[in-house]
Amino acid sequence: MFHLRWIAKLTLWVLAGTLALSATANASTSYRTGVNKQFSAWLKNLRQEAKTQGVSAATFDRSLRGVKLNWKLPNLKPPGRKLKKKAPNWQAEFRSPGPYFKQSYINSLVATGVKHKAALKPHLDAIQRTYGVPPGIVLGIWAKETSYGKAQLRHNAIHTLATLGFMSERPDFFRKELLAALKIAQTKGIAASKMRSAWSGAMGHPQFMPSAYLNYAVDQDADGKADIWSSVPDTLASIANFLNRKGWRGNTWGYEVVLPKGFDCTLEGPDKRRPISDWLEKGVKRTFGRTFSPAQLKQQGSSLLPAGTHGPAFIALKNFYVLKEYNESDLYALFVGHLADRYGKNRTFAGKWENVRGLTRGDTFDMQKRLVKRGLDVGGIDGLIGFRSRIAAGTYAKSQGLQPTCYPDKALVNHIRKTTPL
Ligand SMILES: [Ca+2]
């Protein structure tokens, strides 16, 4: 009896569950039908705007034929719903900067890059003559963006931008990029189906957004098209043109250096740049016993300490900050510069990246709030350690009579908690 009753109960429960599920499915289907209708209206409106910007109805219809909302993209904000964004993991421990420069990864990029450098020499030389950007830097960006064009670009730029322009965290930004992509299809001889991109709409080997393509892509192989999807010369020249226009001048991004004992790590950052000769007067030296030429001594350089005093130190030239125009991370710019150096002589950093783990993102967030309360500039309370947070941590340590390392650790965070209540 009991057994039968149990089965009956279970059946009811399964039935109820199925009904509830199908009700949810129906609600979800009708919700999506509604959203698809809004998307169609949005496209109609966009078609008009595109027309006023010179995109013909034929180009528009051809480029967006069969477009569907892609519900799998990250950070979507569908109409009437909340942003589906992954919240920062405040419990997550920071990785130290060291693993970003994994030697096996760099060595494999160097091996491939050296081959490309030899095979592409005539193109790279011509590009350097025109844009003044050395081969290693151009190859370094190509490597970092798409592994020298090997990375798979899984999206059609126009289709992914249509979803992001319609329902994402930054709809205006992506809508403008979508219009720029349509202009490329209209005026640059590139078919929409050819414009392969990452989910974000970053296109081709150099990962240009469509507006960057319109501003910086060039036709190096003179076939009439700036083809950053299948022409390597066009790709490399487009990267070089971007860097030239952002202000790249000369041969290098900066130099690894050795700091003297007791060096003031709070002197980091682009607003404290000074001639390299001044840094030498403070006891800074080049690594591996190298010296600076008289011309180099006159260059303006900033001290750069991605792991504070717990890692290699660098003098960054203005060109380093040009690389940050490509991607705003210090580590990205350093990676490209370091890789460029290694195509010449494959030698790793002289300094050692120490393990500086132990802090969570929440710890850093909390520390930043307290440092701001003390009137220090942390460059934004975001739980991330940029150079302004490093300087603020160092400045705090100095004010407390502690030895500054300019990279926060548990002991420093606890010290700040005690002295600076919120
Ligand atoms: Ca071309």
Task: Describe this structure as you would to a colleague.
With 422 residues, the chain is an alpha+beta fold. The protein is 51% helix and 6% strand. The protein is built from 16 helices and eight strands. The strands form two sheets. Strands 4-6-8-3-5 form a five-stranded antiparallel beta sheet. It has a two-stranded antiparallel ribbon with strand order 1-2. The longest helix has 51 residues, at 2-52. It is globular and about 65 Å long. The protein binds calcium ion. Residues 219, 221, 223, 225-227, 231, 234 line the site of calcium ion.
Shape by Cα distribution: globular
Topology pattern, helix = H, strand = E: HHHHHEHHEHHEEHEHEEEHHHHH
| Helix vs. strand class | alpha+beta
Number of helices in the DSSP assignment: 16
- State Rg: 27 Å
Mean pLDDT across every amino acid position: 92
- For the secondary structure, the number of strands is 8
DSSP helix fraction: 40-55%
Strand content: 5-15%
Q: Biggest β-sheet: count, sense, barrel?
A: 5 strands, antiparallel
Query: What is the CA-CA span between the terminal residues?
Result: 65 Å
Unreliable spans are none
Major sheet: order of its strands?
A: 4-6-8-3-5
Ligand types: calcium ion
List the helices and strands and how they pair.
Elements: H1 2-52, H2 57-63, H3 103-119, H4 121-131, H5 135-146, E1 155-156, H6 157-166, H7 171-187, E2 196-197, H8 210-216, H9 232-246, E3 254-258, E4 274-275, H10 276-281, E5 285-286, H11 294-297, E6 300-304, E7 306-309, E8 313-316, H12 318-326, H13 330-344, H14 361-373, H15 387-399, H16 410-419
Antiparallel strand pairs: 1-2, 3-5, 3-8, 4-6, 6-8
Bound molecules: calcium ion.
Residues 219, 221, 223, 225-227, 231, 234 line the site of calcium ion.
